Fold this sequence. Notes:
Structural class: alpha/beta
Distance between the termini: 6 Å
Helix content: 40-55%
Largest sheet: 6 strands, parallel
Number of domains: 1
Number of strands: 8
Number of helices: 9
Radius of gyration: 19 Å
Amino acid sequence: MRDIWERVDLNGLAEANVKRFAATIYALIEERRTPFDLLLVGGNTGVVMARLALLVYERLRKTPPYVVKTTPQRYEPGREEREENLYDNSILELDVGNQLADYRISEVGKALFVDDEISAGTTARICLRALLSALPASPDPIEVWIVAEDQGFRGKALGELGRPAEVRFMPFAPGVDGLSNVVTYVVPYDIKTALNETFPDDVLSPPLLCNLLLDLPIRDKTVALSGFHYRYHRIARERIPELPAMQRRFLQLLRRLVDEGIEAYRSGALDLAGETYVRQYIASE
């Protein structure tokens, strides 16, 4: 039996998921008229998904919310991924608090958390705890929307968040067993190949390729607080003269996919509730 990674059209599925993500964000901010006070994300894929969400706001000519970036560590290094081995991320409260102060945000009524995928909800829980702990105490609940590929989350309870919150889950796509970071495989093959001549696969994974091409920061795992860097960007600019052209082309691709996703949803051609569309991208065993 062939491995799922060998059977799936990753690029095709990634493009489809970008369209579905754009349609989901459109439905939230345009149809549901949900005005978000901030956009909360964690780690490398989080900042990529935030950029995609901002492209939707750009497409609709709406003022986007501020983006609050965090660098959550899910589990203690070297330990099993079990609940009892969760990392103490309390330091992130200070980082989030500093960002809120910079944006002059003293209260949040509605927050949007986006990521490429969600399963147990550990990253979302860490990020939301940091946000809610950084805000002034209040009995009024914060409305939080989570938009991500559903890798088995299905609206699971996130546990104690430190402050009342009404958490709602709106998946943009169902997960595929054995696959992860699907959206980030949207990078065209020729661009990926060119970049991997400078950065091997074990240095720049698909999520990091997206960060580099969108000129977004990359998480620095050696720093717990405000742990993002642009080191790979500087190396790429020095070694790859074609990088600016690659970045423009990639951004144009994403803008096209965002446009197509919104238009397909508005015309009724894209059904956000559908869970069978992924089959067309997976070859039979």
